[in-house]
Write a structure and sequence with these properties.
Layout lengths: L2 H11 L23 H30 L3 H18 L7 E2 L5 H11 L1 H20 L11 H23 L8 H13 L4 H16 L4 H4 L3 H15 L27 H27 L9 H17 L6 E2 L1 H9 L6 H21 L4 H15 L2 H9 L3 H13 L2 H21 L1 E8 L2 E10 L4 H9 L6 E11 L1 H16 L3 E6 L57 H24 L7 E6 L6 H4 L7 E6 L13 H12 L4 E7 L3 H8 L6 H7 L3 H9 L14 H18 L2 H8 L4 E8 L4 E5 L5 E3 L15
Parallel strand pairs: 4-5, 5-6, 7-8, 7-9, 9-10
Antiparallel strand pairs: 1-2, 3-4, 10-11, 11-12
Helix pairs in contact: 2-3, 2-4, 2-10, 2-13, 2-14, 2-15, 3-12, 3-14, 4-5, 4-11, 5-11, 5-12, 6-7, 6-15, 6-17, 6-18, 8-10, 8-15, 11-12, 11-13, 17-18, 19-20, 24-27, 26-27
Amino acid sequence: MTDTSIESERHRDKDRPDKNPGDKGHRDGTRTERTTFKTILRYDVPASLVVFLVAVPLSLGIALASGAPIVAGLIAAVLGGVIAGAVGGSPKQVSGPAAGLTVVMAETIQQFGWAVTCAIVACAGVLQVLLGLSRIARAALAISPAIVHGMLAGIGVTIVLGQLHVILGGAAQSSAVDNLIELPGQIAGQHDAATVLGVLTIGILLLWGKLPSVVRRIPGPLAAVGLVTVLAVLIGSSAERVQLPGDLLSIGLVPELPDGDWMAFALAVVTIALIASVETLLSAVAVDKLHTGPRANLDRELVGQGVTNMVSGAIGGLPVTGVIVRSSANVAAGARTRASAILHGLWVLLFVVLLAGLIQHIPLAVLAGLLVHVGAKLVNPAHIREVHEHGDLPVYLVTIVGVVAVDLLSGVLIGIGVSLLFMLRRMIWSGIHAERHEDGWRVVIEGALTALSVPRLSKVLGAIPEGGAVKLELVVDYLDHAAFESLAGWQQAYERAGGTVVVDEIGHPWFERGKSGEPTVRKGQESQGMPRWLAPWSEWQVREIGETGLPEQRTASPRVHAPMHQGTEEFQRRTAHLVEPTMRRLADEQRPHTLFIACGDARIVPNLITTSGPGDLFTVRNVGNLVPAEGGSDASVGASIEFAVGVLGVREVVVCGHSSCGAMKALIHGAAEDLPAVGDWLRNAEPTVSRAESATEPVTLDGAVPDAPADRLALYNVLQQLDHLRAYPAVAAAEARGELRLGGMYFDVGAAQVYNLGAGGAFLAAGEGRTGAATAVKRG
């Protein structure tokens, strides 16, 4: 079946009643999937055969690299499929002997012997069951991915260094360091047929992924081991072969407890249990990302792995973990349920029973070549790029060196220690620098300012000459007691010496009352106010620290520049680099969508209330948001309309009125005599007054009539200006062609509420799914 047909069948199955109505899923919220014979036969049986073909050579190779009996790898493969597949909590994960434990197992077998190692594996299984029952499986996910990837890479390097000796006709040394030291001599020595077979195995594995997809349906490990083994048999190679015991199926109780050194025994148990658990859990999480079926129950998976290792250790098998290589092959082959993992274990058992003789034809150098390829793949360039992008490359490298140079547990612990140091550094890091700024100094402090930063803070602040003007910009996530006292003390001393210090805090006001010695300890203790790009100058621009009262009651220090000057500085420093790419695209031409006609009132910010940015609005502002009648004495608004509609091709024209409009009040009460120009301009609004006086039905805001007469007049004014717009030839022609629509808008300043003009002539509140934009208005 092709991948396409499998995927389409998967989508069709979503509509089928596959789930058991009475099955409420696992406790952790995962759902279960109903297993039917048809599903197993159609999907799981083929997938299990694919996984079986991948598992056999890998199991043999891992047993070889661990220094365990070859049959121990096959026992672990069978139990990992049957028991872990049936009991575990990750339905599509396939378990078996893992390359990640080869180094630990080799050291353990060398230290304790095989019989005691089996007892260690069984005890590690008991510990895993206890960890699963305690429901702390997700705690393993707290380990940094850099450590996990570094651990796997260190294991890969260790495997490669050891198995290269086997390929070259020698024997692996007792440690990775010894293997590395002896490797040049091994390479320079004489090589026999084993070397050719090992290198040929590696070559086939490297080239297999580049072959046509039809050929690649055969798993690469199986193909490489099978082809080279057949070649070795045909040419009669004398290379050393795999040795199996004659009584392969006579399984007895293997484990033995040690005669002494119980601390080392316990340490080995904990080490194997922890590494197997972490590898299993991370593999389960990775497998969940590969499919859309039931999610893994990590606690149950840990219990299943523990039960499997108890049995595996008891009958002479290697420790079992979830294996991402087999699991990904399982998912890719279309497995639907846990039956695939179980069946793969049964296939391995049948293979051992019926075809054990074939295994004994496999040269050890072929398995060594397979392991070199597997070990090299554990050093994953994608993982290296990932940890580098997150700034964790040192943690990754230290973990690798620790695993290779010392041992796996020590390497992981060293990696955890370095990771904690990096975490601590990031939590307490603060960037502190001072620079000359016009007639004074600018000091910028970023990050978390804590006691550990005080020495550097004191050094930077102490280098600023006395008697100057200092602008202190605080962009800090946290300010502790020691840093607060240091800043406050320096500020007070600097100002006593004749200087001035202006504090500019971006974000939470940790130091807002620093001069008075009153800290703001927790976020939320003080309102943080609006972001600067939304707030008026008076709410964010710096003032002298000694001032009191509300912002509008304060007077700026003579040293502080005018608000506009400060605003442009703020833009260049914090905003310009953010909008520069957009402005670069708009540099040569503008293509606004909307002509926005608004009042000049300072409280109306068109881009704010329309959530628009550069290039969106062509804005015309005047007193009263008026559109003089076409052909009138004032041509400035008409020129803007003609340019926007005829040249820029805007697709919408919106007239925006607002509450508490001074122009509307002047129309009602009369313009002041000392404002003759205003009086002349407001004659353009006389049709608005006539319209309001002759109206038989009031214009409403969400069904209500505004209380203030000026606000009621502002609504009529919007409608009247839309009528004036339609008298412009350019507007009328574009609207007739369906290329332009006219809309009205009203902004209630006190409520910060936008109203859009609806088709029925009433204004409706924007938001809550009512009207997303100004609505087209029918003529008249």
